[in-house]
Amino acid sequence: MISVFFKTACIFLISAAGFVLRRRGILDTPFNRQLSLLQINVIYPALILSSLTRNFTWPTLLANWPLPAGSALIMLTGWMVALLALPALRRAPQATRGMFRFQCTINNYSFLPIMLAATLLDDKGVAQIIFSALGAELVVWTLGIQALTEGSAAGAAVPAGASVGPLRARASATLARMAARLRNLVSMPLLAMAAGAAWLLLRRCAGGAIDALQATPVGGDISSMVATALQMTGQATIPIAAIIVGSRIGEIHVSHLFTRLIVGTTLLRLVVIPALATLLLFWLPFPAGVRPALLIVAAQPCSMASVMFGEAYRCDARFAAATVLATHAACLLTIPLWLSAPWWR
User: Domain of 71: which CATH number?
Assistant: First the structure.
């Protein structure tokens, strides 16, 4: 367990740099957002393309369908736990209830697991984490957003043409929300996953022609150039993600951190939900080769992106920030415990 703790803590050591830089005013909120956009739109997609094309073929990609299915199962487990716990929050504002459901459903399924896989597993483990994120992304933009918008100001908003009639206005609002969610699905990481899968399919169908092109001096140089550029860019994902995490934590105020709701959410997110998800991962016929990556995902704290989601959808961003800080601090203990358990390997 001590070995796992230090491998986990090294990631937070990088995050500490972002925390200190934010506290000293070197990093600020606008720069942090721009760095996040760079990460999401360039660096992380490069890592996706590089990992998929170097570690998978089209047959092995199809054979690893349990990865996104398992990631979605983990999120659905959290969604069910939140649904069962929701009556205890009947006196809480709707915005807090929605964010509570989001925090239980969606965890830090991407960057932090990638960092852990890079230290605990191998390069293929990183690729498995990336591919498993597809299932989590689908849950984020369906059940996750539904939890935030149900009964909230953003979810209740109607278009300017509401005067034409309540039924028509309600239908227009519903269509507008569905269109917005579909647009959200078209993100650069998802496009990179699709591009990587398309390339593997192309190699499967026209591998001979592609190999012949790469065998030529110019074709080989171009192929090597693109692969090297993607790999070098993607390698920046882990340190930049850690600095972003630390910088965002530096923006969080610790007031009202130790409330019953925060402590309860932390216990659900780091203990109850991982335990149930682990039972399901072993009870259902998931291949042994994909379980380590999925168990890393199951043990994760609340998603750092939840604060931005809270602001965008007018939910309780303050509660989101508090739970992010609490779960990330507590996971320094819980993640080594989960990943040192005898069933993990």
Answer: 1.20.1530
* Long-range CB contacts (within 8 A, 24+) of 149-157: 149/98, 149/177, 149/313, 150/98, 151/94, 151/97, 151/98, 152/94, 152/95, 152/98, 152/313, 152/314, 152/315, 153/314, 154/312, 154/313, 154/314, 154/315, 155/313
Number of domains in the chain: 1
> Is 345 among the domain residues?
no
Q: Does residue 267 belong to any structural domain of this protein? A: yes
**What is the residue range of 214's domain?**
2-157+168-339
Longest CA–CA span in the chain (Å) reads: 69
φ and ψ of 302, to 5 deg: -65, 150
DSSP state of 277: H
Q: What is the DSSP letter of 107?
A: B
Q: Is 302 helix (H, G, I), strand (E, B) or coil?
A: strand
- Report the alpha-carbon distance of residue 328 to residue 239 in Å, rounded: 17
Beta bridge partners of 107: 302
Q: Is residue 295 part of a domain?
A: yes
Residue-level pLDDT, tens digit, the chain, 345 residues: 566 677 667 777 888 888 899 888 898 878 877 887 888 789 888 988 998 888 888 898 888 889 999 999 999 999 999 999 999 998 889 999 999 999 999 999 987 888 788 877 777 888 889 889 888 888 887 888 888 887 554 444 444 444 445 666 666 666 666 666 566 556 788 788 889 989 999 989 988 888 888 888 888 889 899 999 999 998 888 788 778 777 877 776 666 677 899 999 999 999 999 999 999 999 999 998 889 999 999 999 998 778 767 766 778 877 888 898 889 889 888 988 888 877 665
**Distance between start and end Cα atoms, the chain:** 13
Write down the pTM of the prediction.
0.75
Q: Is residue 162 part of a domain?
A: no
The structure tokens listed for 155 are: 């979810």
